[in-house]
Specification:
Elements (H helix, E strand, L loop, with lengths): L9 E5 L1 E2 L1 H17 L14 E7 L6 E10 L3 E7 L21 E5 L7 E2 L1 H15 L4 E9 L7 E9 L1
Length: 163
């Protein structure tokens, strides 16, 4: 792109904590524990340090992944794992096979101001989002919090250029 050409407009799409779905998935775990039941073969049960987030694609076509915009307000680590388009959380339990690889991992070290991340995997995952946006209005993510952070410490979004 020539220097004097205008940059394409960018869309910042936040990852929003889906409190209802996180609660629903936690209730599933509690129900199984109370009844002494077992998870379905291959079912992914939500762990205490995991929460469900969503991105509502305000535009689905002509998106090009630009970057992740991840901010932790204190040292710690988050792992962002996408879910496949075949998961319909209102109808089915989340299965392990519906978790997408690679995950994007971001961390903030003590005495650091800049986020570190697994760049190659995070970029590959981000580029897949552009394709998934074409067929989905909403995408769900499991975010795992570790090393002392929790949902209140995270601000996250994915930034796309509009082509």
């Amino acid at each position: 792109m020539a220097e004097n050409e205008p940059k394409p407009p960018q869309l910042d799409m936040p990852l929003v904590l889906d409190e209802d779905l996180t609660k629903q998935m936690r209730l599933r775990v509690e129900s199984l524990k109370r009844r002494g039941g077992k998870r379905q073969d291959g079912e992914k049960l939500l762990q205490p340090a995991e929460s469900v987030y969503r991105v509502d694609f305000i535009q689905q076509q002509r998106l090009q992944f630009e970057r992740w915009d991840i901010v932790l307000d204190k040292p710690g680590k988050v792992t962002i794992t996408g879910t496949s388009q075949i998961w319909t959380p209102d109808l089915t339990n989340l299965m392990m096979r519906q978790l997408l690889d690679p995950a994007a991992i971001f961390w903030l070290k003590e005495d650091s101001v800049a986020m570190d991340w697994n760049e190659a995997d995070a970029l590959e995952f981000g580029e897949r989002l552009s394709e998934l946006a074409k067929i989905r209005k909403v995408m769900y993510f499991l975010i795992t919090f570790s090393e002392g952070v929790e949902p209140a410490n995270l601000k996250a979004s994915v930034v796309f250029s509009q082509l």
